[in-house]
Amino acid sequence: MRKLGVESIQNIAIGAALMGAGGGGNPFIGKLMAINAVRRFGPVTLLGPDELADDAVVSSPSSIGAPAVSLEKFPNGCEFKLSLDKLQEVLGKKISALFPVEAGGINSMIPLIAGAQLNLPVVDADAMGRAFPELQMSTLVLAGHKICPIVMSDEKGNLVVINTDDPKSAEKFARAITVQMGATAQSASDTTTGKGLREDGVTGIITLCESIGKLLSDINQYDNVNDALQALLDLTDGYRMMTAKIVDVHHVTKGGFNFGTVILEGLDDDQNQVGKLEFQNENIVFQRDDMVLATSPDLISLVDEETLMPITNEELYYGKRVFVLGIPCNSKWRTPAGIKSVSPRYFKYDLDYKPVEMRIKDFLSKEMEAVQ
Amino acid sequence: MNYCLGIDVGGTNTDAVILDKKQTIIASVKTHTTKDIESGIYDAITKVLKISQLNPEDIRLAMLGTTQATNAIVERKGLAEIGVIRLGFPATAAIPPYSEWPKDLVKSMSGKYSLVHGGYEYDGQLITSVDDQELRQVLANWRGKIESLAVVGVFSALNKNQEEHVAKIAHEILGNNIPISLSAAIGSIGLITRENATILNSGLCKIIQRVADGFSNALLKQGIVQADIYLCQNDGTLMSLDFAAQYPILTIGSGPTNSIRGAAYLAKKRDALVLDIGGTTSDIGVLVNGFPRESSKGVEVGGVQTNFRMPDILSIGLGGGSVVRQHDDGTVTIGPDSVGYQITDKAICFGGDVITTTDIAVRLGYVDLGNPLLTKKIDENLAQKASAEIKRMLETAIDKMKSSAEDVDLILVGGGRIIVHGDLAGTSHVFTDPNGGVANAIGATIAQVGGQYEKLYQYATVDRTKAISDATMLAKQQAMTAGAKGGSTEVVDVEEIPLAYAPGNTTRVKVRVVGDLA
Questions:
Q1: How many angstroms separate the Cα of B111 from the Cα of each of A36, A111, B187, B400, B457?
Q2: What span, in angstroms and rounded, lies between the C-alpha atoms of B33 and B136?
Q3: pLDDT band with cut points at 50, 70 and 90 for residue B500
Q4: Which of A66, A73, A209, B377 has the smallest CB count inside 10 Å?
């Protein structure tokens, strides 16, 4: 058990932008809300997953909707309590701790806001180990936990309860209600037990985000950016897949989601190589020349070549110099069911999932052959 | 004959030029910027008038580009005590105004704010209507306690009626003379960053009055009594003193903009990159259709995150006074420190003992300056390495600012431009001009009047052509308010940005126009 104050929040927000794999939106508004909540109500208690009783009731407060809208109309702050109170009433049980549904973007911050306001501890675990665009894309759902009941609320105090056994229907209803609530809404969902979260969630994720943020905030303590990058790769078990410059960005908005292709030109050791990144909110496929080096659910994250700060997909532009990183996803995604729900095929690419470490190994041995 | 006087105040120099009606340079002068700024401006006017030998009454237009607004924020001096009305309750209470601002800056503006009922949804519906009674009570409490008012409403870019309604009531209660800043006219989407910009704008109302009065008086004292007076905005256009009183924040960043516009004028180009090499830094901007490209990222001013429009400028620590160092492993690095204005004492070619980039240019025979013999003691190998490093730094920066992989024209200006030699990768042609040293003052002198309008349209319900012509009309109205001649306005830029996740094909349309002075 430890306390999270303003500095921790700033670091977690940086780490969450990396774990957001390009998506999840910029955590700016979430971070400001969390800092205000902590300044007003005091630091939040972070519970290690093992410190949670097996039968403790845990739920996840989150924000749903258009990141662009929440930059303009953000919450009152009372919504989190409204949703969680109503959820307790529907469940007929008291919620004893909160957790983030995903580690990326604004949702990495919402449980910290609610936790500070309601004096509830936050568990060091999430349900994705990264960010994904849809509610049913969670390791808890994979293991058979229910998303519903979902309680959604807005700043006017409107409350809507969604109850369905089908996770995809839950996603559809939640989207429709979000539009009626002004394109952003605050929800509480994914109720499970301490044991359920410990076994079927991704544990240690908040601490990991904080460590990443800390490393990147203190980058000056390293002699050079390569040493800092190595430390970041060690921390995340990641790979540097390319050093490159963005030479083209093509964005399309389809059905409310943000799709795009980024073309990269290799720099330094990677000169004369061409990289291609495909994203659908989050980054889905990265290939270098003709070889695919990483796909969802492994994380593909871009960081700035000088500061190593993570770059979300709203911040891509010609001339930006980046490292493209590949980070293995949590092993829970690497089961047949996990692969089915978030593999490249789910995102409509004619491509099978293969773990990033195997793809990198294939790539390196091909390079070796070429040299010999 | 009619003449036009332009002055640009920079961190180190205050430059002045006089142009005739055909925009031919009659006289130009470079003077030192003074601590109080005003005496430096006065000095520059005196000198340039003297060189030109003109009758002061023939000066019919006078323009000033100045850094006083930036200085006031950075130094927290002369800022007004203000009140902030945010329209958005019950939404947005989770982040109050002034969140994560530097404390001394909040204190210097008194920190008063009130979150009241109001604001719009993304689709133009009301969050709630404004509660007049609530509003009147807040304003009555501030009577006599604030010097200026900032008003910011949720989604006011969509509909500014509520903000205007607040202004009307505020004038009733606080008097007709109180300056009121409305956020819809200042920043774009992003409530916190727009609110921050609006607060800063509101805090600058006293400073801008002082600048305007000081400039008018300086001109009068020199006998320039027939001139219309304007201040430079950061988009390369002018504003009347009345307009400036309402939008002082738009003077921030006018220096680099004037430099880009002046460069464009000298090279007779409308599309190019502009590289302005000073003593300490090199600034790269992008000239698009005759005007500087706007930054798409937020800008930090005095420790506050804002989103008002600013020119897109990349600054790197490389100038004519940057210090050159050789390390134990043989590598050569440059800057970011510079001898700055002390170059005439400290550089090798002037008899000093610090190797600067200027010395490298002298050593390699690119330029004849100071005493070239003194630079012989610099190892030629080191000089070659340093020259290669200068080239590499500039080429990398140029590449970052280009918007496509194609080669572009480059216009080179600024006093430090002598450190560049030979071709630069990524450029097709490099333009220079003997008057490149006062490009910024030229930019101030040739400025036109502009207007800008930005609004969200739902293309599902409003026809796209109609939306753009609506925004164009409103931009033209703005230009005329700022002093443009009706009928002379032309569109320079139309930008459409679709909003991700928002339904109804919501698109942000932004139109920019310019026109001649009336």
A1: 16, 29, 20, 39, 34
A2: 46
A3: low
A4: B377
